[in-house]
Design a protein that fits this description.
This protein has two domains: 77 residues, FAD/NAD(P)-binding domain; 61 residues, no CATH class. It is α+β, with helices and mostly antiparallel strands. The protein is built from four helices and seven strands.
Length: 141
């Protein structure tokens, strides 16, 4: 995917590490799917760190709960299926099914500094996860 989507970027220059607090990635899915997902990630060169969490993030990377530091120029954080505390703090009115409404640029109304990506985005009409990620990529590019 890195080679296909970012041809100017050399795969050898990129390290991708998935830090998962649960026993395995896709923790709510069947064990066979968790195993398949982990194998697929490892085959693509992704380092998978299960049963650990991030305790700190700064300008140069992150620190895991065991004290290990991972240097990084880009850190992407994703958690669960909804960001309840953040949404509550922002005071955003939710759409149907507790969804967070956004505009065509994936920004929250009244909070242009907050972008949302998720598979259930009613406003822009992308029901499938891949479609949303492609839209987000083109929006953020």
């Amino acid at each position: 995917m890195v080679n296909r989507d970012f041809p100017a970027l050399h795969r050898d220059d990129v390290t991708i590490t998935l830090v998962e607090g649960a026993e395995a990635a896709l923790g709510t899915f069947a064990t066979s799917l968790q195993t398949s997902a982990t194998k697929a990630l490892l085959a693509k060169g992704v380092k998978v760190r299960s049963k650990t969490t991030v305790s700190e993030v700064d300008e140069t990377g992150l620190v895991l709960d065991d004290g290990e530091r991972i240097d990084a120029t880009t850190v992407v954080w994703a958690a669960g299926v909804r960001a309840v505390s953040l949404i509550e703090a922002l005071g955003v009115d939710l759409a149907s099914h507790g969804r967070v409404p956004v505009g065509p640029t994936l920004q929250l109304a009244g909070h242009p500094e907050v972008f949302r990506s998720a598979a259930d985005n009613d406003e822009v009409g992308y029901p499938e996860p891949a479609s949303v990620l492609q839209r987000m990529e083109s929006t953020c590019s």
